[in-house]
Here is the input.
Amino acid sequence: MQRIGGGGTPPARAPRRPVRLRAHEHPQRPEVRPEIGDSWARLRGLGLDPERGREVRRLRPGELEETRHATGLEQVLPVLRAALFTPGEQAPVVLAVADPKARVLWLETGRRLRRDADAIGFEPGALWSEDEVGTNGLGLAARTARPSTVHSAEHYLYSHRSWSCVGVPIRDPRTGRSAGVVGLSGPATGDHPYLRQLALTAARLAETELRAGHLEALHRLRTVAVPLLARFGGPALVVDGAGWTAAATGLPGPPRLALPPGSWGVGGVHWVPTLGECAVEPLADGWLVRPAAPRPAELAAQAGSAVLELDLRRPGSPELRVRGSAGAWSHSPSPRHAELLLLLALHRDGLSAARLAEALFADPARTVTVRAELSRLRRHLGALLAARPYRLTAGAETAVLGPDDPHDLLPGSVAPAVRELRADLARGALRLPGRPGGAQPPASSSANSSSLGSSSGAAPSGTTA
Here is the structure.
């Protein structure tokens, strides 16, 4: 990747009087992007003043060092510095690396831009979330778990409108969840088409570095596991703390086991998807797993008595939990699969591929994409996902656990159905299906049907308020 040098004309200083945009002019304008309009509406609901803002909250020095160590992101800094900056030259951008909560852990730039960043409190230890400092690339990417660009007057706070910024989540290769956010910022004195691509490249470089570290850790675990497994007569495998297989004997080891959300504690006998009942013991930085009798998980046996719980309470980290006669397991669905699961949980009678395509893309012709995603989802759900129309099996009890703030429901989604569902929840027109085991809300024929677009005729099986 080509480095950004500082030769030639130095970057222009940020204008002293940022462009102001009256609040009533912003999200109603047709050219405003959906994610910006949604963010502004959310922040107005929180009562954040775009002119005054809030005093920036900061981590104490000890907390900052502890948070840096906990993320494991320090290993990515050398490669980012080497790729983005030329030593001794004036940097035209600000590089920030934050944790998943948008707390700025490291900030790299030249003296000139550092002064401008300091003036708005953008410094190591600062909490740069949307709730604290309004719409910005770093905070928006942290909340939505997707790349986000915020240019000039798209910032919610007037004081930030002399900047352009891009934030891109860094995915932890072990868990698939966000390990943090990398952000690039610069003066909003002109168009910077390269800024987003640079930030995307920086995030991919960081993920490559994390993946290399994970492979090294697996190799270290393997050197411990192989001599141990050689002493066992039966099938066994060793996995790391995230479930990735380091070594196996007596069975074809799956690439990764689905660990329960709270890990296995001190071990014991546990039901493991694809393996059945297993004796589990802690070993080095992982687990020794010995199946009682290797056998595939019989998801079909769960279909008649399963309990599905879609947990969307943590923005950017959806989780699907399933309990049935054969045991319990959990799965972290992709953002697209989380959207599909949410729609299927609300519409228990089922939806055709065309209606799902309209709900996700505002284009009923994109059925090929929908069918491909549902085929991938069926690998995890098995017989719990039925077809013609696509639906969750009728015998499964289903619940959706939503966040306290409806705007945080799959915040990275720009699907028309999800955006309209957020609006319905915020104004109290619809409730999500209740917790499994309790009284389920009855289906309502009067529920708002806008979650599938204006042409939809069927109402979701949620409950109207």
User: Anything to note?
Assistant: Residues 1-30, 294-303, 437-451, 453-465 have pLDDT under 50 and may be disordered. The two ends are 54 Å apart (CA to CA). The longest strand covers residues 178-187. Residues 193-229 form the longest helix (37 residues).
